[in-house]
Fold each of these.
Amino acid sequence: ETGVTQSPTHLIKTRGQQVTLRCSSQSGHNTVSWYQQALGQGPQFIFQYYREEENGRGNFPPRFSGLQFPNYSSELNVNALELDDSALYLCASSLKPPSGANVLTFGAGSRLTVL
Amino acid sequence: EDQVTQSPEALRLQEGESSSLNCSYTVSGLRGLFWYRQDPGKGPEFLFTLYSAGEEKEKERLKATLTKKESFLHITAPKPEDSATYLCAVQVTIQGAQKLVFGQGTRLTINP
């Protein structure tokens, strides 16, 4: 059973640029969630994708967008990068619909630095 | 507003010295409380899910407990390899999605 894989692992961008982060979900999982983790903080929910549609979003502006593909892999796109976007971006997959609480399996993350 | 607070922020113990980490939460409609472990430069690794007050779960040197307002992660006779950041999270529903609301974590260091 393969876990969640993310790419790239590290990247550096300058303010105003755009970035795309990629995620392959764990085998058998059909739902992907994205989280942002600033240094020293807990992860914060960005949004979730199920059946190739966004079905829930946290307090993030529209310049954060995503896609889910038929094979359940996903992309996170961030436009007009700001310095505060520097963080570890975590992808997590799960199986929906859950009966009760469902366990998220996280990838190792993509570390984004905005200069 | 759903909120999770963990204490202490950092904890340094000697090998074999038992202790507890606290997670207090305020949430409307708890669907589950999660404990994750996160090593530097890695994603969170699932440890436990607790669903209702009074529930307990154990794994090796770790035991998680849950009340109506807080959860504890008890660490018995820890080893240096238990050093990590421990994250607590509650699961809530938003616009049809199930999201985790995390605390800021407790950074645990076990000295040999």
Amino acid sequence: KAGVTQTPRYLIKTRGQQVTLSCSPISGHRSVSWYQQTPGQGLQFLFEYFSETQRNKGNFPGRFSGRQFSNSRSEMNVSTLELGDSALYLCASSREIGGELFFGEGSRLTVL
Amino acid sequence: GENVEQHPSTLSVQEGDSAVIKCTYSDSASNYFPWYKQELGKGPQLIIDIRSNVGEKKDQRIAVTLNKTAKHFSLHITETQPEDSAVYFCAASRGGNNRLAFGKGNQVVVIP
């Protein structure tokens, strides 16, 4: 059974640019969540989607956005990148809301 | 919001000994407490979880205990092996969503 797949795995951007990260959940999983991981702040919740609807949002500025498609795949977007956005962005899926979360290996974003 | 703290930040143990990691949480409404293991270059992997209606759960060499009165929960690893070396994260949530509040993580080093 394939796990959570995130693309791209690594990317480098410059300040002011925007980035889109993609996540394919485990087959049959309808809930997708996104987390940001940094050495200083640890793992922080970004948002959660279920059936194409955002169910929960963390304390991040509006530059961070996401969406979920009808096949449960999800994307997140960060606009007007700042140096502090450099992080590992993790996607996690679960069969239903509140179920066991399975994480992907993450997309490592470096902002120069 | 929920605040989860983990202690100690680094733990070194001899192979075969036991390792214990403790976490405290602040939100008395939290009722779901998962533990994740993260190896270098990988995403967090769920290793065990507990819900507030039980006080202890065991899975082979791993066990988790929960004390809701004191608002703390602990991970116990017995007969540690080199492959147990990793960063371990505790988390808490109110359930019914995938918004987990994570601790900052513990680096566990098993010395052969």
Amino acid sequence: QVQLQESGPGLVKPSETLSLTCIVSGGSVSSGTYYWSWIRQSPGKGLEWIGNINYSGSSNYNPSLKSRVTISVDTSKNQLSLKMSSVTAADTAVYSCARDRAIYSYGVWYYYGMDVWGQGTTVTVSS
Amino acid sequence: ETTLTQSPAFMSATPGDKVNISCKASQDIDDDMNWYQQKPGAATIFIIQEATTLVPGIPPRFSGSGYGTDFTLTINNIESEDAAYYFCLQHDNFPYTFGQGTKLEIK
């Protein structure tokens, strides 16, 4: 059974870069039928999809965050990472990673949303 | 970007009740709608896929309906363990978007 576990600093200073890792166990990030997503949740903004990536590095990003976000995958460590630059208090949230179902057919990826989620990790942006 | 309008934001129910949670999309998303359950401190649980299909292992008192722009999550014969936060997700187009969520309280 696939499990995901997020980790990273719980406190980040304004203008710095937030860095989180998601370790995947019980499954492989190299599976060709999945992408891997990052999502965040805050009381003020609700749930927000940040972006996703697959084993080959093919990725999709939320346009609202794209300029500040990089998602990467490390198949050797079976994990994915999130980096968000120039953070402000508005980036304070619970950050979660999740497995994202996808199928590649006739040259096109079809996406079916997240099926397995991590518990999430709280990140506070404050000086 | 597809906006999802979920209602109600909060509801209270008694064990044995039937409840409906609505999610309306700002544009046609076919059946590209999922529903999730979230409890504090726990991983989010996937309960309904493609608008109407129950995820394996989820109790059959949960069901989903709808197509296009109007979707509903129904919980029949509510149990105390169903107290949770429920939200919808559309995966028809990027960026994925979520409903604002519904907090379900069991009296």
Amino acid sequence: QKEVEQDPGPLSVPEGAIVSLNCTYSNSAFQYFMWYRQYSRKGPELLMYTYSSGNKEDGRFTAQVDKSSKYISLFIRDSQPSDSATYLCAMSVETSGSRLTFGEGTQLTVNP
Amino acid sequence: EPEVTQTPSHQVTQMGQEVILRCVPISNHLYFYWYRQILGQKVEFLVSFYNNEISEKSEIFDDQFSVERPDGSNFTLKIRSTKLEDSAMYFCASLGVRSEQYFGPGTRLTVT
């Protein structure tokens, strides 16, 4: 079983739609959860960062972590064509120094 | 806003040659990382570095790889004898105060 699983998509939605992106994981030691956005052949850009279970909101983005189910989500409200990118979930065990373990990434296209 | 920078953006080398990839992490960050992403695959951890020594390394990071912080600002990844399978995007990252990792734009390494 993979440590982190993410549906690679592709996912295509109309502008203004609510987008739901998800990852599951198997390592119960993961404590820190991140979502990155990656444009083609560019570096991952940090979008959201959460610790342990709970919700976090930042503008149109909401991150949810359910540690009991080993499931994390990213919601994008009022999606825009500029949101078209690959979204990567990533997680780590500890704070300082821990490696990030990434999902495969979900490719999202928002159509005008 | 401070950011991680990497040079060169694209490096082409012949099999068996040595390459050095360079990174300038965000000032005042103390942990540094190298990751790689083979085309179409997930981002994979290579090595973390703290206080002038390797903190953790993955099974990918074998004797052909080395890292160094030659001065107060640069962080380098050396591949001693490149193989075709080393062709990938290589990302440098540094750790922020909330334990979030910020990535550079990457160096695309092509081994021919």
